[in-house]
Write a structure and sequence with these properties.
- The chain is built from no helices and 26 strands.
- It has 294 residues and is an all-beta fold.
- The chain has a 5-stranded mixed sheet with strand order 7-8-9-10-14, with no helix packed on it. Strands 3-4-5-6 form a 4-stranded antiparallel sheet, with no helix packed on it.
Length: 294
């Protein structure tokens, strides 16, 4: 899906175009364009376009691009990629937006909803430890919540005034969510990387604070847009200036290493079986332990 041009294209691994379709273009808030990635699940692709003209959620046949269903949504721009949440009760499509979250079944029927997000949502929902984690932290809002949600919800599960949990919201915190990065659950800990260079750690099952805000070196101007990632007992945080800070996973904050790239970095790296793939403003890196420098 190529931004404001509105083209959705399917290629094979040799680069041959298999099918394409026109989606848009649409106007987005402040001219920022689109950012939500398509979601491939089994033989379907799910695509959300939350824009200022004709917002919608749709399902396509992955092999042909044929539209299976389309549901209208409120006309408002957001940039969060949906999640197909396969829990122990069912599969559901989680779609955050301004001020709310909606869960759909895979045929586009609404299962449950939750009011109480910030006015812009960017972070991607994800599941771990049997819970669904959703955050929304626009820096211009006082409400910047993070929710941990149990499977099986139905209807409106919005918290009442003064509540921080209910039958389906295991725990919540109204002010800890970051703006751009998605939070990270690794083992039993939840890490929150804030755009301006602070890292917090919480108990992923209860929301209890494990350690308060710790300052990370940015390495230049800017802050953090890429989401943190983890493996091998380490948490990695890549700044816009290209500096990766490696922090020990677990209840004690400890910086283990810093690694610099001489370029702007705003994309979250991809992880393969033995490598990190990092896309900067001008280069593509594959980083592997023990690899010769190239």
């Amino acid at each position: 899906y190529l931004g404001q041009a509105g083209q959705f294209v399917c290629l094979d691994f040799e680069g041959k175009r298999l099918w394409s379709m026109k989606i848009g273009p649409f106007n987005y808030r402040w001219g920022w364009g689109s950012a939500a990635s398509p979601v491939l699940h089994k033989d379907r692709i799910y695509l959300v376009s939350d824009n200022e003209e004709g917002a919608f959620l749709m399902a396509l046949d992955a092999a042909t691009g044929k539209e299976i269903w389309r549901k209208p949504r409120e006309k408002e721009s957001n940039w969060s990629t949906p999640l197909v949440w396969e829990n122990d009760k069912r599969a559901e499509l989680i779609v955050p937006a301004s001020n709310r979250v909606i869960s759909y079944d895979l045929d586009g029927n609404e299962l449950w909803s939750l009011k109480g997000m910030s006015s812009i949502t960017i972070a991607t929902p994800y599941s771990q430890n049997g819970l669904l984690y959703i955050s929304s932290g626009y820096v211009g809002d006082k409400l910047r919540p993070l929710y941990a949600i149990r499977p099986g919800a139905a209807g409106d599960i919005t918290l009442k005034a003064g509540e921080d949990h209910n039958d389906f919201i295991a725990w919540s915190n109204p002010t800890i969510a970051p703006y751009n990065p998605t939070t990270l659950v690794y083992d039993k800990y939840l890490y929150v990387l804030h755009d301006r260079g602070f890292l917090n750690c919480y108990d992923a099952l209860t929301g209890r604070e494990v350690y308060p805000r710790q300052r990370l070196e940015i390495g230049g101007r800017g802050g953090f847009t890429a989401s943190p990632w983890a493996c091998g007992g380490k948490v990695y945080c890549l700044s816009e200036s290209g500096l990766t800070t490696v922090v020990a996973a677990g209840p004690e904050f400890k910086v283990l290493a810093s690694n610099a790239l001489d370029d702007t970095c705003m994309s979250t790296p991809a992880i393969t079986a033995d490598s990190f793939i990092i896309r900067t403003a001008g280069k593509l890196y594959r980083i592997k332990e023990g690899a010769a420098a190239k």
